[in-house]
Amino acid sequence: MRQLLIIGGSDAGISAALRAREMDPGVNATVVVADAFPNFSICGLPFYLSGEVPDWHNLAHRTRDEIERQGIELRLESTARVIDPVRKSIQVEDAKGRIESLAYDHLVIATGAVPVRPPITGLDLPGVYLLHTMEDSFRLHEHLTERRPEAALIVGGGYIGLEMADALRRRGLQITLVEMAEAVLPATVEVGLGRVIEDEVHRHGVDIVKQVAIESIESKGSRLAVSGSQGFLKTVDLVLVSVGVRPASEMAAAAGIDTGVRGAIRVSREMATNVADIYAAGDCVETWHRVTKQATYLPLGTTAHKQGRIAGENAVGGHRQFAGSLGTQVVKVFDLAITRTGLREDEARAAGFDPSGSESRVLDHKAYYPGAREIQIRVIGDRRSGRLLGAQMVGDWQAEIAKRIDIFATALFHEMRMDDLSDLDLSYTPPFSSPWDPVIMSAQAWGKARESA
Amino acid sequence: MRQLLIIGGSDAGISAALRAREMDPGVNATVVVADAFPNFSICGLPFYLSGEVPDWHNLAHRTRDEIERQGIELRLESTARVIDPVRKSIQVEDAKGRIESLAYDHLVIATGAVPVRPPITGLDLPGVYLLHTMEDSFRLHEHLTERRPEAALIVGGGYIGLEMADALRRRGLQITLVEMAEAVLPATVEVGLGRVIEDEVHRHGVDIVKQVAIESIESKGSRLAVSGSQGFLKTVDLVLVSVGVRPASEMAAAAGIDTGVRGAIRVSREMATNVADIYAAGDCVETWHRVTKQATYLPLGTTAHKQGRIAGENAVGGHRQFAGSLGTQVVKVFDLAITRTGLREDEARAAGFDPSGSESRVLDHKAYYPGAREIQIRVIGDRRSGRLLGAQMVGDWQAEIAKRIDIFATALFHEMRMDDLSDLDLSYTPPFSSPWDPVIMSAQAWGKARESA
Prior knowledge:
homodimer; alpha/beta; FAD/NAD(P)-binding domain; globular
């Protein structure tokens, strides 16, 4: 019986195992999981920490039983240390420090990412958290529930920073959010929409500090003094650091596997590495971007699931290609949903397009039907080809924004021209939309802005 | 100055006028409107009759002023009677019965549809309504508010019948809904989903009678006795008849313009009729179906807007083609949203496909995040090609179903294979979806059902 080994029990790893067994019920699939929590929804951690999800067990996409019932062997609390592509085996260390060698016919590396440690002194002090593992979350949860901190500082205004600001406000903490860039969510939306998000976050009682780089954290009795550029100084009970992640690719690199953008493992669109019979997927790999047609680093749960599924299929003899990422994302922060797909203007320019953006404010449904809410939509198109390149939306979390970005994402997947979006046959009834959906209206507004330019 | 004449001041007519003026500010655009209510959202009438929209004036997509400010002349309460393609003029009768001749260089016919009058005796009795014009709605509104009827019977379980059942329940009336087919919404969803809708409607206090054909309505004092097949007999205060519409195409046919499916005006994909310089759009025309690649009759407001826009563009020299309808629809009935796009199985079979359907029940977002709701999704694919042919969804009105059908619609627009839906990069965060959105999960379920078949 052929042996498929998978290193990593999160989204990409479990998806690979499930798909491999689905395509070839004759394969042995073993997943090496570093902790005791296979297939957990790490995207759900902020909702556990906020108290909205009282029991962390519910964060499992699937239980251990459900996975094993698919004929998948789980090796929990086992850390892969070395990959030997010549002998086709890996060395695994268990919780007691014992090393064992496991042979493979095919290997999928799904080691994920680790948090970036910014150049701040004092990151290892008690009360400072870089959220990464389930264990980190348990420690923070215990801190929140047992020590009842009153004030927290969050370093980084990306989506995890914002979700955590929301989560800790729900627990009643005073929050200061510090972002180095000129607006929050700089990797997701343009500055103008970032400001809209800041207003919402501030309205919910979060202090926001921008264009400040945190430099050091020091103990002050039971508290933490945080200082940074521009003379920033603030004393709090708790510090969360979330300034992004980097691929966990060292073991792969040591085995002779090529890496690329930001050190991520280089893979073909079949999710194969340069080493025979070794595939890789998820937050540890480069991601092919469907719009730029270039490799980038875009660690997202959705992408990890897709790539894992493809790696699993191909590891048992399939030939499926990864169709590429569009960087589609949504985050809920307080009462706002914030979404984007495709390229920002700066990204589009860097990729050789001639981008132009236009912004619309449109109601989510007919004004006369109760409950209409304004959505802000920014669409980015290519002046030369007229192609849609990206879209960003901000609005009330009940304005069906997440699924509207998916309409853009599906259009972008098919390289539609902005003008052709008016041809899409989208649904309409007054409680849910207008005869031209906001998606189409924003594309039409882009066209009009071009004509008058 | 060239003269563009447009007959009809609803969705298609006004869209044509607006687009013509947008493309060519030098054209004279005159719209002949049979009543005093140009550009009203007739889709909003049920919400006016329910009381949710207190003021009917708010149902205007645009006010008269807004339209005229675009340089469009409105001739209200003027009914076109004759089209003379040789002299290139039309005869118009005003409210006082005066006939005037108006010349055109280009003509757009947007006369819409009229309600089908089923073979029921007594349709003209007081208290019996075939909703069509704004005036009909005013009469019904007056009846509801001044005579306070207690019991109503609705003939027809299509989307207008269901919306009106919802509307009149909100006013406290007892409702009996009578549908000839074996389930409600037979033109929109398969029987199984129709049953789900019936449960919801019944739960809200509406009696449902199926497979009964109403045959006559008789006055019984101030009430109406309604009888039908299977010995059906019921006495109520009010009867609404909504069994569908047919194209208002007689005047066009009398002018030598070809008609086709169900008597609708035959048009090219440029929305041109067979007669030079005469275009037609909206509920009075045949609609090219993007999946079957054949003409059909699909009167929908969204399609009327699209076709009107194209007719207007081409009437001033454009060459835009109608991209085709997918029959995408959504209706809200009590707390349910009901949607579909593309073909039902019977339609697919009739069009020469080899369809197979599969049904999934999926949560709209991760179970652990509060408020997750079940969606029922039926997807229809072609066994031979693996292509997506259609989708239907029923679920809670806040489960973002309308925009999810639009993801299917956008995929269908691009003739995607069911298997390729897994490649779509859709957004995810636990409050809004799952790493595989319900749209993708239902497509994957179709694939699994095929493999095991």
